[in-house]
Structure formats: structure tokens, C-alpha cells
Amino acid sequence: MSSDPIIRLRNVSKRFGKTQALDQVSIEVPPGVVFALLGENGAGKTTMIRILLGLETPDAGTAEVLGLNSKADSLEIRRRIGYVAERPTLYDWMTVDQIGWFAAGFYAPGYLENYRSYIRQYELDPNQKLKNMSKGMKAKVGLSLAMSHNPSLLILDEPTSGLDTLVRREFLESMVDLTANGRSVFLSSHQIIEVERVADIVAIVRGGKILLIESLDELKKTSVEVTATLQPGNLPFEIAGPVVHREVSGRQARILIRGHADDVRETMLQHPAVQSVDVATPSLEDIFIAYMKSESVPSFVSDASGVKVS
Q1: DSSP-assigned states of every residue in 86-126
Q2: b vs e for 287-297, b when ≥16 Cβ sit within 10 Å of the residue's Cβ?
Q3: Quick check: 308 pLDDT over 60?
Q4: Which pLDDT score is estimated for 147?
Q5: 175-205 pLDDT, tens per residue?
Q6: Fold of 222-309
Q7: What is the DSSP letter of 166?
Q8: Which whole number is the average pLDDT over 143-148?
Q9: Whose CA is closest to 216, among 294, 292, 306, 281?
Q10: Residue 309: what pLDDT?
Q11: Which long-range contacts (CB under 8 A, 24 or more apart) does 77-82 make?
């Protein structure tokens, strides 16, 4: 398998009127991973996907998918990938089987057989009309349609929005099976808890800017949630180091800092204003919220021995 990025954005910017949807975004996604793009609604996730698919033209920068230019080769990109939108357009008057037969006309032989295999796997009734199906069942139809030509890349834009918890988990965990078979998944979502179960690499976007791109394992290994009890009185409590976010209420301080737990605990206990310290590994949701609240994003080097408090 090639190690070349399956998706590459270079300094991509896009503005709609007075809104800067994307601001100098650069991303590279390796093959064979679940890449999760996390951000609140309006952060720029859908704009990024539309640029990758050639449905929007960036004001600056370049986008590539499968080594193809998103602007010049948009039709070929959409032919070769699978794409599931947040609100997939389906012909509601068709049955589950009919829409697969219809879609098969746009792809090579074998598509319909693959589609029917997927709908059996998802326990969908081939004779049921789409208009009578729940949103979760329609999401499974959309995923079956997107995968039946065996694409090497799936791009999913909030595919589980509005689904119940069980269906959402089942849907996302099926992404792991895809990467096990050598495919790649680019997943845009704000369902942080579910994404944590399946993502290999996460990127956080806020206001059109990328705040971080990192493997999930490394991100959690080098993020520390600190709960500190401060000494009585008004001793200064300033922290120098890769602090993502801190909140102080009375004598309690909660801090999310990039570093290693033992180093952070030791340096915090040396602070004259600190009476006691508890450290924990934060969840991805904790990390995401801290980055959403942060006023400035720290640069982080994995050797965190240089973390200092003062």
C-alpha cells in the first residue's frame, strides 16, 4: 500500500462574505486510518469536505484526494470515493433494493451484488420504501450505497447526526472494520464520545483554523487534567508551559495541560500556591472542550520535561 497521503490540503482558505470559513488549513491524512475532524457546528468542517469533493473552490491553497486535484479532477474523485452527507439525498419513493439498482447504473459490474450484501449485513428489508424508514435505517442505506463500489476512501460528513446511541455506535464501529481491510475514513463529527472509540488520528478545528492534528493515542498520553487545591490566602498562581485551558474558582483550579502526568504532578507540587494536586487522563471530550475554550493554543513538544510553573 502506498504511504502517500490519501487527502492533502495545503494552506486552504475560503471566505463567504464576512465569514472566514477556512483560514490557511493544511492537513495530510495517511491511508488506512480513521481520521476524525472535530469541531462545533459552523467551524468549517463541511466547507472543507465540499472543497475536497470539488463542490467549492478555495480562495487560496490546493486540495488533493487520492493524488487528484480537487478542482480539476472533481468528477473522478467523486467516482472513486464513497461519500455520505449529513442529510443524504435519497429518492423516497424507491425501495431499498430499487435505489441500489438505480445507483448501480453509474458504476462497474458487481456494484449491485455488493450493495445487496451490505443491506443484508445491516438487516434492511429490500422491499421497504425509503419514505417509511427511520433516519438510522436511511443512514445504513446511504453507507451501503457509498461502499458498494469498493472505494479506498470514505468521506463522512456528520453521518450519525440525529441517530440514537445504539445505531450511532454500530455505524461508527463499522468504520474500524473498513480500515482493517485497508480502506481509509475521513469522518467529520461533533459526536466526540463515539468518535473516541474509533479514531486513529484527530484534528480539532475552530473558527476555520486547525488547532491540532495528532494521533489519538499520543494526544491522550500527553494530555493531563489537573485538579489543584490552592493554599489559603492570595498567593500568585501563574503557570508557564503548554496550558490549554485553566479555570480557577476559590481555592480550586482545574487545568488541562500538555505533558506527562508524573512531570506535571511534580512541577505543580513545587508551586508555592498549590496545597495538593490530583492528575488524571482526560477523555477526548475533555480535551476538545478545553481547546474550544482556550484563548491561545500551546505549542507542544512530546518531551514535556520542560514544563514549568511559577
Answers
A1: SS----TTSBHHHHHHHHHTTS-TTHHHHHHHHHHHTT--T
A2: bbbbbbebeeb
A3: no
A4: 87
A5: 777 777 778 999 998 778 888 988 999 999 9
A6: Alpha-Beta Plaits (3.30.70)
A7: H
A8: 89
A9: 281
A10: 42
A11: 77/52, 77/53, 78/53, 78/54, 80/151, 80/152, 80/153, 81/53, 81/151, 81/152, 81/153, 81/154, 81/155, 82/146, 82/147, 82/149, 82/151, 82/153, 82/154, 82/155
Strand partners, 72: none
Q: Residue 204 in contact with residue 210, Cβ under 8 Å?
A: yes
The gap between the terminal CA atoms of the chain, to the nearest Å, is: 49
φ, ψ for residue 161, nearest 5 deg:
-60, 125
Give the residue from 185, 173, 85, 188 showing the smallest Cα distance to 135: 85
Domain spans, the chain: 7-217, 222-309
pLDDT of 120 over the 50 cut: yes
The CATH number assigned to the domain with range 7-217 reads: 3.40.50.300
Q: What is the mean pLDDT of residues 128-157?
A: 89
Instruction: Reply yes or no on whether the pLDDT at 303 is more than 70.
Output: no
For the record, the C-alpha cell of 298 comes out as 500551546
For the segment 260-294, what is each residue's pLDDT rounded down to a tens digit? 999 899 989 989 899 999 999 999 999 999 999 98
> Is the Cβ–Cβ distance between 309 and 267 less than 8 Å?
yes
CA dihedral of residues 191, 197, 200, 204 (deg, nearest 10): 30
Alpha helices in the chain (DSSP H): 45-52, 74-80, 96-104, 111-121, 135-147, 165-180, 192-196, 216-221, 261-269, 284-293
